[in-house]
Automatic annotation (TrEMBL):
Chain ranges of the Peptidase M24 domain: 163-418
Superkingdom as given in the UniProt entry: Bacteria
Lineage: Bacteria, Pseudomonadati, Pseudomonadota, Gammaproteobacteria, Alteromonadales
Keyword line: Dipeptidase, Hydrolase, Manganese, Metal-binding, Metalloprotease, Protease
Protein's gene: pepQ
Full protein name: Xaa-Pro dipeptidase
Molecular-function annotations in GO: aminopeptidase activity; metal ion binding; metalloexopeptidase activity; phosphoric triester hydrolase activity; proline dipeptidase activity
Domain Xaa-Pro dipeptidase N-terminal: 3-152
NCBIfam families for the chain: PRK13607.1 (NF010133)
Length: 436
């Protein structure tokens, strides 16, 4: 059996269980459609419903839908506009078509006629802001119990999903190397961003999220996506957090570079070592929350070793000082979405883990299990807004903080596939393959 055949069988089984548990006879997963800008007729970039691309690797066919009734073949209504405004219909043969009943439509009316009475018994999953979808009589719209059940089980990736994530990482790593070279060449942020896209022949809307391309101080802005068009007089440091997609699966990679040796370059190396040390702690049964805390203690160690904050690491962490330098979560599930869902779910009945108020941005609280894929992305930044709360704090070495500020910050981010005995680092393996 091919890995895709095994994947769609798993998806089908997961929907069977979810529908049985939530008492729906069938489901209609709508791919979605682009929103049009206010008072305009131009659509915003289209992003397919992740639960649609879970079934089939089709990401560019808005207004399509999948109807699934347990015990029967899924029916894919593939929407292909047939008019002179659009490119001609073409449905290249693909393996997924062997596993579904394919119905090509050019009008959603054809879907409703085809389904007839069945529509009213189906739970609808998708966006429904536009007609005729908004007026369809369905059993329920996005019922939370059904979504929770599906989202909980999505955490365990199939072999086919992992294969796609591997390729997505290879694509992103290829682009990262081009971006790094553009940084060495002294290019502007926008030029680096363009080099990234050109290296993988991608348009911006294909990326899983807005790339963060920050030179110097911009490395400290966690979601920086302004892209200066002029190169700075001196490019001292470069933080790039950028991904790629493959068959709808996402990569999410961060690397940080220092142009010259010295304090910041040493900090980047030390963070890289601390991140790799943390990777050795990932094992089934360990809680991701505990990894996050372990990483905070390592960041506390770096703050101490680099004489940024004085004291021993346990005290630095206990006093809450690490939060000022490493304010975001250690990572998140990744897959069909860059921040894949289900990180707070205790079970498939929708019960949630309680959140720790000290770590409000941590998106993953589940115990680690084989086949999960998540990122590990520790950082250390000079963020003045967070440091303000500590002004006058004797333990902080403000001179050292001033020395580091022009470099922004460091983050290293890899994606890990959990195995029973050992893990796979999708990101480092991708870079190693390219650097062979
Ligand atoms: N690039 C978004 C993140 O790292 O979570
Ligand atoms: Mn991430
Ligand atoms: Mn990232």
């Amino acid at each position: 059996m091919s890995s895709y055949a095994a994947h769609i069988a798993t998806v089908q089984a997961r929907f069977d269980q979810a529908l049985a548990a939530t008492h729906y006879e069938a489901v209609l997963v709508y791919a979605g459609q682009p929103r049009v800008a206010f008072l305009d007729d131009n659509p915003a970039p289209y992003k397919v419903n992740p639960l649609f691309k879970y079934w089939i690797p089709v990401t560019d066919s808005p207004k399509s839908a999948i109807y699934y009734e347990p015990g029967r073949k899924p029916v894919v209504f593939l929407f292909q506009a047939r008019d002179f405004w659009h490119a001609p219909v073409s449905v290249p043969a693909a393996e997924w078509q062997e596993h579904v009943e394919l119905v090509v439509i050019d009008d959603l009316q054809k879907l409703t006629s085809y389904l007839g009475d069945k529509l009213a018994k189906a739970a609808f999953i998708g966006e429904d802001f536009a007609e005729p979808v908004a007026s369809w009589q369905v059993a329920a719209r996005n019922p939370q119990a059904l979504l929770d059940h599906l989202h909980y089980h999505r955490a365990a990736k199939t072999t086919w999903e992992i294969e796609n994530l591997r390729v997505a990482n290879l694509r992103a790593a290829t682009a990262h190397l081009a971006a790094r070279d553009a940084f060495w060449a002294g290019k502007s942020e926008l030029e680096i961003h363009a080099a990234y896209l050109a290296a993988i022949n991608a348009r911006e809307t294909e990326l899983p999220y807005n790339s963060i391309v920050g030179l110097n101080e911009h490395g400290a802005i966690l979601h920086y996506d302004v892209y200066e068009t002029e190169a700075p007089a001196a490019s001292r440091s470069f933080l790039i957090d950028a991904g790629a997609t493959y068959r709808g699966y996402c990569a999410d990679i961060t690397r940080t570079y220092a142009r010259e040796s010295g304090l910041f370059a040493d900090l980047v190396s030390a963070m890289d070592a601390a991140q790799q040390q943390l990777l050795t702690e990932i094992k089934p049964g360990v809680n991701y929350y505990d990894l996050h805390i372990s990483q905070h203690l390592k960041v506390a160690g770096l703050l101490s070793d680099f004489d940024i904050v004085r004291g021993n690491p346990e005290d630095i962490y206990a006093q809450g000082f690490t939060i000022a330098f490493f304010p975001h979560g250690l990572g998140h599930f990744i897959g069909l979405q860059v921040h894949d869902v289900g990180g707070f779910l205790q079970n498939d009945r929708g019960e949630l883990y309680p959140r720790d108020e000290r770590h409000p941005f941590l998106r993953l609280l589940r115990p680690i299990e084989p086949q999960q894929v998540f990122t590990i992305e520790p950082g250390l930044y000079i963020i003045d807004q967070l440091l303000e709360a500590h002004v006058g704090e004797q333990a902080f070495n403000w001179q050292r903080i001033d020395e580091l500020r022009p470099f922004g910050g460091v983050r290293i981010e890899d994606s890990i596939v959990v195995g029973t005995d050992s893990n796979e680092n999708l990101t480092r393996d991708a870079f190693a393959k390219l650097e062979d």
